Amino acid sequence: MTTPGTTTRGARSRFPKVPEGDVIASLDSYEAARAVVDGLAKQDFPVSTVSILGSHLRTVERVTGRMSFGKAALGAVGTGVMLGLFVGLLVLIVTPGVGFETLIAILPVAIGFSVIWSVIGYALNPQRRQFTSVMQVVATHFDVVVPREHAAKARGLLGPQAPAAAPATQQPVPSAAPPAQQPTASGAGAAVASAVPGGSAAPEAQEPAAPRRTYAEAQAEMRRLEREKRAKEAADDRAGSSTS
């Protein structure tokens, strides 16, 4: 449902989403935001790109009056009249020979039935209230949003008297922590010595053990040592024979 003076944006997007762009005015009432858009429309601005974004939603229950059995019955009279007319016209259509006297006779019956039903329902309602009200959802802050490519033009048309957009609040920047002091060589040695019981310096770290070899690597190493042993024995035999 659209209101007069608004533009349907169903052709842009199938699903509604929050408009993106620059806020050119921030106001506290819808009437003021509508006045801003009206001012842009009078100056031939492409208002089809403008959006009014409401925020800070609140639920408002407006009390319209007291509620009693009499008001419950009185409110059912209109429903009874509509019900009687519907049933009477239906009877006239289905049964052409029936006159309007039947319609006049049906109206009191329908009104009485509706009143009795409403009073009984009000009496049996465990959450019966003593007042009538209307629930509404109301926005308390309105932003006029336009695409970024049209923001400068919109601000120029509104002039210096345009409502200023709410400035963004700046978060305090936490101060950087002071750099930790690096211990000197003597201080580092003293710290290590104090950490070891007895006050002596910590022993040097031992070299990591050699990685464990696989079975194939161990067999290859044994064959290599065996060949070296045989080669050494052969060399010794040749040396002994040459000396003799």
Automatic annotation (TrEMBL):
Q: Which UniProt keywords apply?
A: Membrane, Transmembrane, Transmembrane helix
Composition-biased stretches (Low complexity): 162-174, 182-211
**The General stress protein 17M-like domain covers which part of the protein?**
23-90
Question: Compositional bias (Basic and acidic residues) at which positions?
Answer: 220-244
Task: List the Pfam families hit by this protein, alphabetically.
Answer: YflT
Q: Which InterPro entries match?
A: GSP17M-like_dom
Source organism (scientific name): Pseudoclavibacter helvolus
The membrane-spanning stretches of this chain are: 72-94, 100-124
Region spans: Disordered: 162-244
Q: How is this protein named in the record?
A: General stress protein 17M-like domain-containing protein
